[in-house]
Design a protein that fits this description.
By secondary structure, the protein is mainly beta. The protein is built from one helix and 13 strands, in the order E-H-E-E-E-E-E-E-E-E-E-E-E-E.
Length: about 200
């Protein structure tokens, strides 16, 4: 069934799709690259905002360490994929909920949460968020995918009150696996990062 045969309503992707595997693969060559150049007289038709949080003790569920990624678009998208991960220095990783949807309506927020027990603290953690957009026909960019990373953060919660310090040579700001396309901005929010994507036609 092609995208044009799908009903005009959001549909969650419940089976493992090749696009999900491609987003998560470190070797995915075209991630973060805009496929189609915008014409000189292009008109902006909408935007998507993605927010991601630094790892932190949960303020909602006692005894948990959280990370989160969320996405909201002002136009309907052919496909949206987002998944957050919480990683601990030394190799441990916890995958969050997978948000993979087709034919999304404008204005809806999709969030992925990853967490682990405070028994893992104190420790040094980071947030990793993978995302994909597929735009409607005629809208640029037609396809965008990437993975972003928070800096490593010392986290303590529960009975642990002393957070370890991150290594001095580690990144102090959010970074992306691949260069961000032209026109995409990533700014610090104090407790995380925010990316803004513009779409034109």
């Amino acid at each position: 069934m092609s995208a044009t045969d799908l009903p005009n309503r959001p549909r969650r992707v419940t089976r493992r799709r090749r696009i999900a595997a491609a987003v998560l693969a470190v070797t995915f060559a075209v991630a973060g690259v805009t496929a189609t150049a915008a014409p000189a007289n292009a008109v902006v038709v909408g935007a998507c905002t993605m927010k991601a949080n630094d790892p932190h003790p949960s303020g909602h569920v006692s005894g948990r360490i959280n990370s989160e990624g969320s996405m909201r678009c002002t136009i309907g998208m052919t496909e949206i994929y987002i998944r957050a991960y919480l990683e601990k220095a030394g190799g441990a990783s916890w995958g969050g909920t997978t948000e993979s949807w087709l034919n999304t309506p404008p204005g809806q927020t999709y969030s992925s949460f990853a967490n682990t027990s405070c028994s893992q603290a104190p420790g040094t953690f980071r947030t990793r968020v993978s995302y994909t957009f597929r735009s409607p026909a005629g809208v640029n960019p037609a396809y965008t995918a990437n993975t972003i990373y928070s800096p490593w953060k010392g986290v303590a919660c529960g009975v642990s009150r002393m957070a370890p310090q991150a290594e001095q040579n580690q990144e102090s700001a959010w970074t992306s696996e691949n260069p961000l396309p032209e026109g995409v901005t990533m700014t610090s929010t104090g407790g995380g990062a925010e990316l803004t994507f513009s779409f034109d036609k």
